[in-house]
Amino acid sequence: VQYVFDFTEGSKDQRDLLGGKGANLAEMTSLGLPVPPGFTISTEACRTYLATGREPDGLAAEVDWHLAGLESGMGKRLGDATDPLLVSVRSGARFSMPGMMDTVLNVGLTDTSVEGLAAVAGDERFAWDSYRRLIQMFGKTVLGVDGEHFDKALEARKKDTGAESDVDLGADDLRELVAEFKEIVRRESDTDFPQDPREQLDRAVRAVFESWNTERARIYRRQERIPDDLGTAVNVVAMVFGNLGPDSGTGVAFTRDPATGEQGVYGDYLPNAQGEDVVAGIRNTLSLADLERLDKASYDQLLGIMETLEKHYRDLCDIEFTIERGKLWMLQTRVGKRTAAAAFRIAGQLVDEGLIDADEALTRVTGAQLAQLMFPQFDPAADRTAIARGMAASPGAAVGRVAFDSATAVEWAQQGDDVILVRRETNPDDLRGMVASRGVLTSRGGKTSHAAVVARGMGRTCVVGVEALRVDPRAREFTTPDGARVAEGDVISIDGGTGEVFLGSVPVVPSAVVDALYGGAAAPSASSADEDGARQEVVAAVLRLMRHADDRRRLEVRANADTGEDARRARDLGAAGIGLCRTEHMFLGARRKIVEHVILARTPEQRDAGLDELRPLQRADFTEILEAMDGHPVTIRLLDPPLHEFLPDITELSVRVAVADATGSPDAEAAALLAQVQRLHEQNPMLGMRGVRLGLVVPGLFQLQVRAIAEAAASLLARGLDPRPQIMVPLVAAVQELEAIRDMAEATVAEVAAETGTDLRFPVGTMIELPRACMTAHEIAEAAEFFSFGTNDLTQTTWGFSRDDVEATFFPAYLERGIFGVSPFESLDADGVGRLVSIAAWEGKETRPDLELGVCGEHGGDPDSIHFFESIKLDYVSCSPFRVPVARLEAGRAAL
Ligand code: PEP
Ligand code: MG
């Protein structure tokens, strides 16, 4: 194997081997741009070093050879006493990890070569400044000396000499500083700063290898989901100097503004400076316009190079450059990171400029970026101080008065107040409060806790698991980590995109993108004309890319919606139907009591009375939603939640009975009820009597729903509309369950058809959300006209962990240990759960070639999962209305 590659050997496509920096230095070299000569030690060498603890065999010889080549090319020897070659040693991994790993500049300077450098450069100050930088960087990164020691010594020296900044220090000051730095090294590391240039080089290379595994690099990789085993490449580059006086300097530049996407170059320049000075913010930087005044020739050349790079990479590039006595050198380039708004805007511009086509533009933006643009945001210019931070569960910026229970939230909302519902955790009883609130804040729970899932579904801003807040619903207050009390009625602001919580009201700016997606015009704002123009350009780019995604995608996008209002919103946002209408939300509030009567009825008459009461209510529910989605499929799921949600609370009831007994006036009715509730009580309700099991055990319940659907459809047909309900049976594990419900449903629909004299026929199908259903899909498809994968339950039952509990308990440890990189409730576990889905899809189609296949779990709106569903050729994904545009975009990207 070859471990070392000259810059003249590689190309930008070799990032795996050469790292991003090395690959791009090679690319610029082959483009004929002014890159200082050098070579790259491969990531493979690093991996071997990290695995074995020593350099791979042959590496030293290859470095010798390439160093000799560099020396002869430059006509200087590394660390030579009279005219030294100096090199920089820079890390550069496959994925950029800004500031995470180490760099050592000016390698090759020693007590003797510093004099040589001074003589050749004709500048003593420069030579000693370079030497003190080497000792400082080498001390920190190679010898592990705390950087503070050097910084303090530098500060003290500036103070002693009255220097305002480090450029004001003279050669003598710097010479003394070097002595001081060497003393620090000796004291802090028990070794002398090495005077052998080659030893400096080897140790710097090793330190860069090792910097792959520093704590901060690991944390960064975890956050960015960069694999831990890639290793970094090391670039050894001939030094060019930006600290050779006022006609030298160093800078960073972007070919477009990465924050706004504004066309035109953008950058910072610092005269008489080296390396990290620009980003470190040591002195105030100048703009590129200033550089034009200072050094027109270099400026013009730089602009020309930037244009070359943009054309070549066909994208926004960022670069690092140095000017050494009027000669421009390129030290780095890469395709630059950018904000969500800039990503869309630049993609649109590049299409207009003919650099990329519409397909490629689609690859340049992501659903996650679109989601960011769809939420209102806190005004970035506003003053604000965060009091705590939790998990960002559902994005958006919400401001309102704190309410600690649903009733208060509803009451205040009715009075026209904005409310933030604050709870330790939420449960289904909080639903009304959540609907009435602008945002939801909980001190417990994870990203798939009840609060998080429901809030995402409703598009409410939500922050969960803010453990630093002590919520005391009784005292009607919560306390912040520094002891401040926030009482009910006080105003707070929460940012569902970052998880931050602020005291008081932070100003919010609405999303122009959402307006436009709904077909409205971007609202004019108080901002400047420039800002409005920029915003409109972003909006136009989003719409244009959405159109292209729609042209491209094969997957249909439907929405999960339970009300007419949600259905209309989903349709406006481009949903082609409803993939999941969860009917349990229709049985809350007052209706819950009726369901309780049905379940606990002691006689068929009692039961039928309850069912008769529910039927017109359900008919109205279905009429509304079918009408809102007229002409499009509406998949209505028969009742799913566990039994206990419809029973009186067992603890409360027990207390009531016990109190009655103890006070000598026993309540016979309560006691009988308690006995019944105890009989039905379950230890694991989610694995108990829910879904189809409830439908089979409680006579008439599912039939009532089917009848209501059929009656709603018949009445809409009579009005000349085109209702398209699909009847879906939840939690089926065996074909026999489905057959029983299907037979009932078909008979019921036929009855209503006969009664109303209409021609009614609706597809009957099933959720596939249990492993057994996947493994028997062949049989189940005999009785199902469609499958809809319920990946929430399927994930829960495949892994065997509860979707309601685990994200706050052991998930953090699992994520930490890399057992999974992201919660499988958030992004589909393709290897396990996904495998079950593909088996079921495949077998279902074998039985019934026209079987319709969709997904309605949370994963239906998740970008990575959508790419998986495209790969196994499902027919549609269904997600919450607000995710519909994101799903459309990702489905388009997945189809490319
Ligand atoms: C599912 O299980 O994936 C699903 C969509 O149903 P629910 O979330 O209502 O259980
Ligand atoms: Mg389910």
TrEMBL record:
Residues 417-499 form the PEP-utilising enzyme mobile domain. The active site is at residues 450, 856. The keyword Transferase applies. Its cofactor is Mg(2+). The keyword ATP-binding applies. Keywords: ATP-binding, Kinase, Magnesium, Metal-binding, Nucleotide-binding, Pyruvate, Transferase. It is an enzyme of class 2 (transferase). Substrate binds at residues 582, 637, 769, 790-793. Residues 16-54, 62-284, 292-342 form the Pyruvate phosphate dikinase AMP/ATP-binding domain. It comes from the Bacteria. PANTHER family: PHOSPHOENOLPYRUVATE DIKINASE-RELATED, PYRUVATE, PHOSPHATE DIKINASE 1, CHLOROPLASTIC. Belongs to the PEP-utilizing enzyme family. This is Pyruvate, phosphate dikinase. It comes from Jiangella ureilytica.
